Amino acid sequence: MRTRKQRSVIYLVSGVAALAGLLFGFDTGIISGALLYIQRDFVLTTEAKELVVSTVLLGAMFGSLLSGRLTDRFGRRRSMLVISSLFILGTLISSFATNIAAIIVGRLFLGVSIGVGCYTAPLYIAEAAPVELRGGLVSFNQLAITIGIMVSYFITYYFTGTECSWRWMFAIGLIPAILLSLGMMFLPESPRWLVKQGQKEKAIEVLKYLRGTSSVEHEVNEIEQSLNVRKARFFEVFSPWVRPVLLLGFMLGFLQQATGVSTIIYYAPTIFQVAGHSVAQSTLMTAGLGIVNVIATIFAVLFIDKFGRRPLLLVGLVGMGVALMGLSFVFSAGVDSNVLQWSAVFCTFSYMICFAFSLGAILWLLVSEIFPLEVRGAAMSLSVFSCWFWNFVVSSTFLSLLNQMGPSNTFLLYAFVCIIGLIFCYYKVPETRGITLEQIEDNIRKGLPLRALGQPVLGGGPLVQPQPEPSELSS
User: Fold this and answer.
1) How high is the pLDDT of residue 228?
2) What are the start-end ranges of the H helices in 308-337?
3) Under a CB-based contact definition with an 8 Å cutoff, are residues 17 and 9 in contact?
4) CB of 30 closer than 8 Å to CB of 167
5) Where exactly are the structural domains of the chain?
6) pLDDT value at position 279?
7) What is the 3-state secondary structure (H, E, C) of 88-153?
8) CA–CA distance from 251 to each of 23, 49, 385, 455, 468 (Å)?
9) What's the pLDDT at 202?
């Protein structure tokens, strides 16, 4: 059992790193309100509006592909310093923009920062955290994302009617960006990355600081054993022994977005207005949606290491599917009555609660756990790219689906994806609670089925098994 002092150090480290998640949530959420005021200062076509919104997602896709190589080459800490600088640059460009092109460029920088940050922050936390706290600490990042989204909704409301309101909305993002930059200057590098670079003594000192004890030799030895393989090349992330967990990461990224969360985050006011509520009511209810998102994520942070990943994931998918079916029914029945209008609100809030404690928190945790260390950077970046790709697809098609299929069939489609996700997660997603990253890697190397990757390593055999030569991998 760790003392309060020992826990406080790792909580501080995780909290600073999770500021990248807060920026992620803020910069993706703020545009929904800022766009209403940008179009008052600039003439915007429908295509231009879509571009202003989606540029962040395009930048995030690009950043997610860069993230693996960036963090493997320069380290987790220095990569966080780079993205904090890009957050500051993108925010300044957006805030002082004199035309739409400048706003788009600023949002592109922010998107690249988000793409790298949403990969690097949970990875850094997972590699710094002790095994018994890893789930909750990595979920700090998701909690920070939801807080960022909630804050963006309240900032939008606060600056409504203010002169140059959209500039102030963007500019508030400088505060967490500067805090992230200053905080990372004082935090240590990931001990696993240091061992990988041959800096064992430095890794030992970092672990002593993070654990609050000098007894870290066993943990260092486990990390060294997991590195006792030849250095992997990028394309070996597609080799047969890694491919199953890579496909698992891809599928989790698909499910997180294709179940419709982007439509709720970006278009909640539109959904509430379609349901028959006024603009003022829709704005306040959207802020309330941000609050319940944060509360449900706090629940995940507190209990993910107690209940486990799988139970929360499966229960959440069931709840999301039921809520989406409820929305489908409400819109098919019509929204003229007061009961149906508020039923739509209830279903939307229920969906967000279930998403927050399941796919919302668990995706980022699992992709930081399931990949072998030698290919973790590339594999995680590809999984995060999958998440951003489907975010872009869902966000850029939602309004078109509403027009062509109607709201009832659109939400029914997302409910069908929840059913597919429930079946997939039941049979394929492992329970990784209380299992070290090195044990998970050993199970991958042994060729265990995906669902069994979280079982403890038995016996006294070596942690690392011999891997095929490059010629065998390419054959």
Assistant:
1) 67
2) 309-333
3) no
4) no
5) 1-216, 237-454
6) 67
7) HHHHHHHHCCCCHHHHHHHHHHHHHHHHHHHHHHHHHHHHHCCHHHHHHHHHHHHHHHHHHHHHHH
8) 25, 30, 11, 21, 27
9) 92
Q: Could you tell me if 54 and 392 are in contact, meaning their C-beta atoms sit under 8 angstroms apart?
A: yes
Report the distance separating Cα 130 and Cα 207, nearest Å.
Answer: 10
In CATH terms, 237-454 corresponds, of 1.10.10.10, 3.40.50.2000, 3.40.50.920, 1.20.1250.20, to 1.20.1250.20
Closest CA to 248 of 196, 299, 309: 309
CB 228: neighbour CB atoms within 10 A?
A: 11
Phi, psi of 45 (to 5 degrees): -80, 170
- Residues in contact with 244: Cβ distance below 8 Å, sequence separation at least 6, in sequence order: 444, 450
Tell me which CATH code domain 1-216 carries. Answer: 1.20.1250.20
Rounded to 10°, the helix 76-95/174-184 angle is: 160
Number of H helices, E strands in the chain: 20, 0
Q: Supply the pLDDT for residue 474.
A: 37
Query: Which own/partner contact pairs does 273-280 have at CB distance under 8 Å and 24+ positions apart?
Result: 274/331, 274/335, 274/402, 274/407, 275/330, 275/331, 275/335, 275/340, 275/341, 275/344, 275/345, 276/335, 276/336, 276/340, 276/341, 277/341, 277/345
Closest CA to 181 of 119, 117, 106: 117
- Cβ atoms of 297 and 353 within 8 Å: the answer is no
How far apart, in whole angstroms, are the C-alpha atoms of residue 254 and residue 313?
14
Non-local (6+) Cβ contacts of 391 within 8 A are 57, 60, 257, 262
Nearest residue to 155 via CA among 26, 281, 289: 26
pLDDT at 354: 95
- Distance of alpha carbon 438 from alpha carbon 125, whole angstroms: 16
- Residues contacting residue 50 through CB under 8 Å, at least 6 positions apart: 396
User: Which of 14, 38, 7 minimizes the C-alpha distance to 141?
Assistant: 14
Parts of the chain with a pLDDT under 70: 1-3, 5-6, 46, 226-232, 279-280, 335-336, 457-475
| Contact yes or no for 372/441 (Cβ under 8 A) | yes
| CATH topology identical between 1-216 and 237-454 | yes
pLDDT at 471: 38
Report which of 291, 247, 289, 242 is spatially closest to residue 266, judged by C-alpha positions. 289
Predicted local distance difference test score (pLDDT) of residue 105: 95
Radius of gyration of the chain (CA): 22
